[in-house]
Amino acid sequence: QVQLVESGGGLVQAGGSLRLSCAASGRTFSSYAMGWFRQAPGKEREFRAAISASGGSTYYADSVKGRCTISRDNAKNTVYLQMNSLKPEDTAVYYCAAGRIPSAVVAGFGSWGQGTQVTVSS
């Protein structure tokens, strides 16, 4: 399995932007599809975006289309989530995940990071 470490979270005002990063260990990163999810207190983990192993295909939750961009750099073993026009309801812990194919469900990914907190103030 691949080990994942997220970074880039923090406190931002509504309307602001953040870029989350997820660094992966191991030499097989380029064979994994990657995804980003979030989880707010008392709520289920929610799909945000996914990207194929090559980076050629991307997928987004309807609620983030136009506001978020997922990308990856296989040479750096890193996947990113650029988030713009942030809203207070985007406040959550954001997790990256690795799996065999891109998926919009939690069960589609076998490896998870510890998460990074994103807080959006109004």
Quick take:
It contains no helices and 11 strands. With 122 residues, it is an all-beta fold. The strands form 2 sheets. Strands 2, 4, 5, 6, 9, 10 and 11 form a 7-stranded mixed beta sheet that branches. The protein has a 4-stranded antiparallel beta sheet with strand order 1-3-8-7, with no helix packed on it.
Architecture overview:
With 122 residues, this protein is mostly beta strands. The protein has strands spanning 4-7, 10-13, 18-24, 33-39, 46-51, 58-60, 68-73, 78-83, 92-99, 111-112, 116-121. Strands 2, 4, 5, 6, 9, 10 and 11 form a seven-stranded mixed β-sheet that branches. A hairpin with a 6-residue loop joins strand 5 (46-51) and strand 6 (58-60). The radius of gyration is 13 Å and the shape is globular. It starts with a strand and ends with a strand. The relative contact order is 0.32.
